[in-house]
Structures are given as C-alpha cells and as structure tokens.
Amino acid sequence: MRARKLITLMILAGWWVAAGPALAAEQQGRSLKERIPSVTRRLFTKSGRLELTFYPMTSISLNDAFYQKFGGGLGLSYHFSDAFSAQAMVTYSLNLQTDNASTFTISPDVQSKIPYAGKRTVLGGVDFCWAPVYGKVNLASEAVLHFDTYLLGGFGLVGGEQVEGSSFGFGLNVGVGFHLFFTPMLALKAELKDFMIFTDKVSFGEVEKSDVQHQLLFNLGLSLFFLEGDRED
Predict the structure, then answer these.
(1) What is the rounded distance in angstroms from the CA atom of residue 117 to the CA atom of residue 67?
(2) Which residue has better confidence, 110 or 77?
C-alpha cells in the first residue's frame, strides 16, 4: 500500500515538473480577464431601455416646518447607456398641517403667509443622472441582489396653494438615487432629492426678504423596464 502511494506521488511530481513551466508561461501570456472567470456580469443592461416608475404615496418630505407631505405619482426615464440617463417625474402631495402651523394661527396676518412657506401640492422635475457604481450583494448565500447608485441634477417645477389662489414656481434640484434589481424588468428605486425653490419675496409679518427654500424629499418607487435595450458584449 505504501509503495503504491509513493509511486502515485512520484508520478504527480513528475507531471508537475514537466507541465508546470508550460502552464505558468500560458498564464503569463493571458490577460487578467482571461485568467479569472468573470463574475462581474450585470443581471441585465439598462442601455437603450425605458424605465417607468410608480410612486404609490411614497414621496415624503423630510424638512417641512409647517406641512408634512405625502405624495404619489409617476416617473419616466430613458437610459442612454448603463451610466447615463435622463428622467422626468411628477407627484401630487397631500399636506398635513404640523404643530408649528397651528401656532401661527394666533395671528391672521402671519397665518396668511404660512402657505408660502411650504404648502405645495405638485412637485415635478427633469433630471440628468450619472450612475458610477454598480455592484452585487450576496444575501445569506441564497440570492444575489444587483444594485446601482447614481447622482442626479436638473430643473424642478413646484405648484402650491396660496391664500389668493394657486401658484407655480421653478427651481433646481440635486440628489442621489439607488436601484435594487429583482429581475431584468423589475427594480426598487429610491431617491433623496433637494428641491431648491427660488422665491423672489417671502413675507412674515412686516419682514420681507428674498429667499431660497429647500424642499428635501425621499421618493420610493417600483420600476418597470421596457424595450430590449443594448446587449452587453
């Protein structure tokens, strides 16, 4: 038995001495991509595809002093490539009055200015997006979740209720977004966006000044992808 094991080890050692240099030379002549099997392939490509996003009352304001907003709406994106895209979205929000707004009802003159400080129902925007990060998460060794993270910036449209009627304004918005892909056609989409609303004049009592208001929103939606898109090489 020992002799048989010794003969087997000698055969393996001889094979390694003979074939080892040739294998090493072959590996050195190959690129890193050729030597290591690819495990970084995307679940699917976004390039050339349309993305329709539903926000079922999951657009929530985070920094409202007077009115807490809960909104729902739609978003539409076109992906020029896996990294770059353009999107448009619009939401309609319900405004729930906070305790701060109730405090100002003591003075009718000040109360008339509260809607100017945040009672907005329509929020929309057109953004350009850049997604530099794509990755995978192994969930308990049972499932692999694909995700990407992107930056966005663009123009916003804001509509609100004023004491004398409705009004609309424009601004800029910036933010960060995140996709969590479940299938090639289905993904969870989350965004944290800052609407910078440029207002010529804001009045509180006898004080009147120019102001830039920041409307910080968290949007959570469900995305459906359409079109075959560009295939990955």
Answers:
(1) 9
(2) 77
